[in-house]
Amino acid sequence: MSKTIHTEAVDQLFEAILSLKSKEECYTFFEDVCTINELLSLSQRFEVAKMLQQKKTYLEISEKTGASTATISRVNRSLTYGNDGYEMVFERLNIK
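Above: the chain's sequence. Below: its structure in token form.
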């Protein structure tokens, strides 16, 4: 069975996210939708991606973020072979 994220339910979730108007609204929504650990994991991956882009070593990243080497490797794979989602957001947020 093929897995795809392109479903009506995911479309509706993304529409809900796009309707949020402030960081405070994001906190309110995501604290209801995600567990604290899920939210912290997402933010950790984003931090790992930023540090990988800055050419930090796995050791530096792990020490600063607490991420496992498996997580760092997974994020690195997304940066290298993914859909360029991180790069798109980094560019829009002027993250270097």
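Helices lie at 8-18, 23-33, 36-53, 58-65, 69-81, 85-92.
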